[in-house]
Design brief:
Layout: H1 12-15, H2 28-31, H3 36-43, E1 49-52, H4 59-69, E2 73-78, H5 84-94, E3 103-108, H6 115-119, H7 122-126, E4 130-136, H8 140-143, H9 146-150, E5 153-156, H10 162-180, E6 183-186, H11 190-197, H12 202-214, E7 217-219, E8 222-225, H13 227-234, H14 246-260, H15 264-276, H16 280-295, H17 302-316, H18 322-334, H19 340-353, H20 413-425
Parallel strand pairs: 1-4, 1-5, 2-3, 3-4, 6-8
Antiparallel strand pairs: 7-8
Helix pairs in contact: 10-11, 10-12, 11-13, 12-13, 14-15, 14-16, 15-18, 16-17, 16-18, 17-18
Amino acid sequence: MVEREYEMGSPLADKIRPKTLDDVVGQSHLLGKNKPLRRIIDSGHIPNMIFYGPSGIGKTTVARIIADNANMRMYKLNGTSASVQDIKGIITDADSLFGYNGILLYLDEIQYLNKKQQQSLLEYIENGKITLISSTTENPYFSVYNAIISRSTVFEFLPVPPDEIAPAIKRAFQICADEMGKKLRLESGVIEHIAHGCGGDVRKSINTVELCVLSADTKDDCIVVTLENAKLLTQRSNMRYDRDGDEHYNILSALQKSIRGSDENAALHYAARLMEAGDIISLSRRLLVIACEDVGLAYPQAISIVKACVDSAMQLGLPEARLPLAEAVILLATAPKSNSGICAIDEAIADIRAGDSGDIPSYLQDGHYAGSAALGKAQGYKYPHSYPNSWVEQQYLPDNLKDRKYYTYGDNKTEQAAKEYWDKIKGKK
């Protein structure tokens, strides 16, 4: 084998970028046989599209393949630096020979364009001068102008499973060795560790391969990549987390739903993700919400206990904060559940928002001022503590809502005990 100098100028991820759809790693739900995006591409009639998903999973690669398959001229802009003038410059080319077979504009990170910049595209994607494929790592329904959404088809790209990344990692290692003109020896577990450690990000996996090769020892003209080195270069790289992005809210949602479903193991997993990202504030706030919303009156002491755990965590900071927070997570996940409180207050709020309020009965109104009696305020009020068991039948709701029922006792032990008590006091069966 002829020894050649390893070219540092071109990233390895670019060198092995797939040229056909069959070579793309992952996204089989979109690009597999008879899948929607695959059929669209094969038809040759390319609509305006939005590719949504995390970085490094093939959005740009698929856009390039689409342009090549359709024999269209592709222009690429990035939302972080593109201007209206850049867009107008591309439109000028569309009216020239450059646009003979059509122009495909790939707009990466479209969420960073302001409303005016996004609006500047509308005329040209409507009259067909350009075909727009935009990509975003953020939920387009929150970050992209509605007019662009309505004229585009959204496709969600997913993180690639480790078993699908592994062959690409193996090929990347071999390409590196071939370019350096050396043999390659990988310790057992290197490929699997990188595949699992990069969070479904193909580009990050390939970049890790490159770093492993560049930092490897060479013995007898052989590149030796150790598992220890691979672990050092992939540490924490599998954490896909953006405190203001979708992943943040997805983790919090999964945490709450796991606790609501009384799965303490899943709840601990999602709590651990937040802790590893250093975000104990979001975790603490959500645990306080869960104590009231999902455990609620089935175990009303939960809010006090969780508050104590949260306060302790804030005083301790990480890594010790994991201890009280883990206790709070397990307590909530294994506690009895009741949503009777949130259902009751939401129904009451719905009445208020609908305008169903009415006048407060006069005997409930404030009577602590001179002249209140002359106005009939607080007259006829029955003081419950003057009656047996501190209860007397009396109307408290406004007349138009006097029979309204917001709260229904949950079927847990605590609420049923309260129901039994009040049924007895109020003479109900």
